[in-house]
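User: Design a sequence. Structure:
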C-alpha cells in the first residue's frame, strides 16, 4: 500500500521532472462522474494523499482539486520545454495548443508526449478545451506565440493545433451531448450518412470551419507568412474512434471512462456498435475533409491525416487511444512535419 503524502508533496512530485509522469498514477485518479468527453477530471486519491483540511479549515472541493492537478500538469509541461530547450537547442521549437489528444496527464502518453522526442514543444493544451474557448473567448495561442517569437526570439517552426473533438461529441451549451444533437433517430433502412444530414450537423461543422479560419487569419495578422515563412500551422483530423458501448455499455472500458459515443447514440435509438461506428466514421470523414480544405486555402497550413493510424485494439475508450495507439499516430504526424 502506498504511504500517504501531503498535497504539497504531490505538487513537488508533479513538478519534479526526474520522476516519470506514469509514477504519479498511485496518487491521482480520474473521476468519471466529473469527466466530460476529451476532458478527464483528475483529482488526488483520498487513500494515498492526505486531504485533511489544514488547521480545521473547510474541506477542499473535488473540482477545485481537479483544477489544481491540471495546473500542475501544464506547469510540468512548461518545465519540460525549458529543460529540453536548454539541453537540445538544435531541435526545432514547436508550440502546441489543443485538447486531450495533446494533453492527457498521467494515465495515457498522448501525441505531444511521443512527439517530444523530435521537437522542443511548448504545450499549453488543456484536456476538454473547445474551439469556442481556444479561438474566440481566450485565445492564448497568440500570446504564447508572441512570447516565444517576439520576446524570446525563438525560431518557432510549427504551431500544432488539436481541436473540434469536443465540438462534435462533447457536451453542448444546453447540457445535451453535441453528438446526440446532430444525429437523426435511428432508421436501420437508411445509410450512416443520412443520419448526419441535419441542420444541426451542418451548423456545427460550419462553426468549426469558421474557428479554423479565424485561427489562421489571426496568426497571419501578427506573423505574416512572407516575414515568417518557417511558421507552419498543423491541424490534425481525428482517427476513426470506436463505438463500444451499444447496447448496454462497454464491459472493457477503463474505470475512468464513460460511454462517450454510445450514450448519445443510445438516446437516439442506436443499438449496434458497428452501425454506430459507421456513423462516427462518416462524421469524422466530414470533419477531416473540412480540415484539409481549410489548410489548403492557407499557404502555411498543413493538414495531418491520422485516419487509419490507430489499430482497433489500440483504443483505451471510445475517444482516446492507448499510449501505443498515440505512438502510432505520432509517427504519422511526424511524417507530415518532415
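Assistant: Done.
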Amino acid at each position: 500500500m502506498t504511504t500517504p503524502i501531503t498535497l504539497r508533496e504531490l505538487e513537488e512530485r508533479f513538478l519534479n521532472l526526474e520522476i516519470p509522469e506514469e509514477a504519479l498514477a498511485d496518487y491521482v485518479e480520474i473521476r468519471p462522474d466529473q469527466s466530460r468527453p476529451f476532458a478527464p477530471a483528475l483529482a488526488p486519491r483520498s487513500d494515498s494523499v492526505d486531504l485533511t483540511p489544514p488547521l480545521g479549515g473547510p474541506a477542499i472541493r473535488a473540482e477545485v482539486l481537479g483544477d489544481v492537478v491540471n495546473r500542475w500538469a501544464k506547469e510540468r509541461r512548461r518545465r519540460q520545454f525549458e529543460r529540453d530547450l536548454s539541453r537540445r537547442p538544435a531541435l526545432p521549437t514547436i508550440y502546441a495548443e489543443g485538447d486531450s489528444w495533446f494533453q492527457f496527464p498521467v494515465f495515457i502518453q498522448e501525441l505531444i508526449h511521443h512527439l517530444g522526442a523530435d521537437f522542443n514543444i511548448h504545450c499549453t493544451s488543456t484536456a476538454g478545451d473547445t474551439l469556442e474557448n481556444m479561438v474566440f473567448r481566450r485565445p492564448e495561442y497568440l500570446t504564447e506565440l508572441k512570447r516565444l517569437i517576439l520576446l524570446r526570439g525563438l525560431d518557432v517552426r510549427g504551431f500544432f493545433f488539436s481541436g473540434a473533438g469536443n465540438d462534435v461529441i462533447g457536451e453542448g451549451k444546453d447540457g445535451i451531448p453535441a453528438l446526440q444533437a446532430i444525429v437523426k433517430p435511428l432508421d436501420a433502412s437508411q445509410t450512416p450518412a443520412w443520419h448526419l444530414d441535419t441542420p444541426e450537423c451542418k451548423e456545427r461543422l460550419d462553426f468549426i470551419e469558421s474557428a479554423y479560419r479565424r485561427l489562421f487569419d489571426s496568426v497571419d495578422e501578427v506573423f505574416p507568412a512572407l516575414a515568417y515563412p518557417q511558421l507552419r500551422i498543423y491541424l490534425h483530423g481525428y482517427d476513426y474512434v470506436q463505438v463500444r458501448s451499444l447496447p448496454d455499455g462497454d464491459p472493457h472500458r477503463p474505470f475512468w471512462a464513460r460511454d462517450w459515443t454510445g450514450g448519445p447514440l443510445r438516446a437516439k435509438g442506436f443499438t449496434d456498435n458497428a452501425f454506430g461506428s459507421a456513423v462516427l466514421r462518416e462524421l469524422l470523414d466530414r470533419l477531416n475533409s473540412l480540415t484539409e480544405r481549410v489548410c489548403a486555402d492557407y499557404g502555411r497550413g498543413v493538414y495531418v491525416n491520422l485516419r487509419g493510424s490507430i489499430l482497433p485494439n489500440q483504443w483505451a475508450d471510445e475517444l482516446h487511444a492507448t499510449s501505443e495507439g498515440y505512438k502510432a499516430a505520432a509517427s504519422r504526424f511526424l511524417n507530415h512535419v518532415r
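Residues 246 and 272 are 6 Å apart (CA to CA). The chain has eleven helices and nine strands.
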